Amino acid sequence: FSASLVAAPADVSLLEGRTSSLWLYNGLLPGPVVDVREGDRVRIAVENRLPLDTTVHWHGLPVPADQDGSPMDPVPPGATRIYEFDLPAGTAGTYWYHPHAHRTTAQQVSMGLAAPFIVRAANDPLAHVPEVTMLVTGIRLDAGGQVSPGTAMDFTVGRQGEQLLVNGGRLPVHGVRPGSTQRWRILNATSARYLRLALDGHAFTLVGTDGGLLGAPVGPLSEVLVAPAQRVELVVTVSATPGARFTLRAQRHAIDAMGMGTYAGEDLLTIATTAESPVAPLAIPATLRPVASLGPAVARKRVTLTQSGMGMMAGAGSFLIDGRPFDMDRVDYVSRVGDVEDWEIVNRTMMDHPIHVHGTQFQLASRGSGGLAVPAPYAAWIDTVDVPSGTTATIRMRQDMPGKRMVHCHILEHEDAGMMAVLEVRP
Ligand code: C2O
Ligand code: CU
Ligand code: CU
């Protein structure tokens, strides 16, 4: 598979009568979907026509460290960089790509740079189910129609006051034949907005997470929480009533103990059943694919999420990892290729943080608070784990490729302000 991407300024009409100057991949909001198969070799040339350094990070994919688009590998304005990697068997899933430049990731994503990256398996047990990809982004425009820059408050609690877009559209209407069963790949590409999804009058069946399908479907669920950077695959059987409308919404969700990081409920899109006669729902297999256990851990690490200053108003840089701000010349953790490790991520701050590790998919082992640990209810491959304020999440992980990898909060303002660390994986 080969493709080229151009990251460049582009004028788009979003508000009536006004032109918004965005930064886009190939002039598209969101960028073009990369749709590939396990076993493919991917070669993507990226031309940087932006006025600042960029990179493209292949979020969640097990690419070699030098193809990962980390902040250590900037692509300067005017330059073209070729990224090349293989997609091993077992990687089928819903990923995304976005810039990851030093200190400007939040800015670049909020200007429009993000897109889905879908990997398919030859033996997909849900291949018979029609699918829809929904990439959720946020946009905040000023009165003149321009993307408003990040504020000090954004750098504290994450970018606030954005409107949610689905595939670049505001409140799109999605027409569906009554009774249809669909597979939705939902990606949270917002800076900081937790999506606690619900579809009125309907239940979801969770069939996949960041790294692809679960072992077996989970549900019915009345809501599903998708933290920033996470993805879910949901199977939904739409109402058999013709001519009905239902709203998919992100419900109210608070991510800090003081009420500043509270997101009001917001509608995402409308499901409108057509006037046609209903179709019969599709059956979903009882097992999807094996999600192997990683086996016992041979090493243990503790990552402590900390906060400098007394309150939420300490300003930019107030959230840290192990009390230190990001320094790309420092190595914070060392692991060995092939070692299974348990990482205990302890959140001592007043906010929830979605913690992401590059280079591999991992599994949640348990969650705890106040000394009580509850094992994960089912095995799933994830690359981002939500760690609510005052709790501990233990993940089990194995890195299979050597090199330096980022470990960071995926509230992009936190990442840019220094809530990031370097893991060196040694051969
Ligand atoms: Cu999606 Cu290091 O990021
Ligand atoms: Cu990543
Ligand atoms: Cu954070």
Describe this structure in words.
4% of the residues lie in helices and 45% in strands. It has 3 helices and 32 strands. The strands form 7 sheets. Strands 10-9-12-17-14-15 form a 6-stranded mixed β-sheet, with no helix packed on it. A 6-stranded mixed β-sheet has the order 23-22-25-30-27-28, with no helix packed on it. The longest helix is centred in the first third of the chain and has 6 residues, at 105-110. The radius of gyration is 21 Å and the shape is globular. CU-O-CU linkage binds next to β5 and β31.
Question: Spans of 5+ residues with little confidence (pLDDT < 50)?
Answer: none
Q: What would you call the quaternary organization? A: single chain
End-to-end gap = 29 Å
Numbering strands along the chain, what is their spatial order in the largest sheet? 10-9-12-17-14-15
| Range of helix content | under 10%
Round the mean pLDDT to the nearest integer and report it: 95
Largest sheet: 6 strands, mixed
Strand percentage, roughly? 35-45%
Radius of gyration, whole Å:
21 Å
Number of strands: 32
| Individual helix count | 3
- Overall shape: it is globular
Supply the helix-strand structural class.
Answer: mainly beta
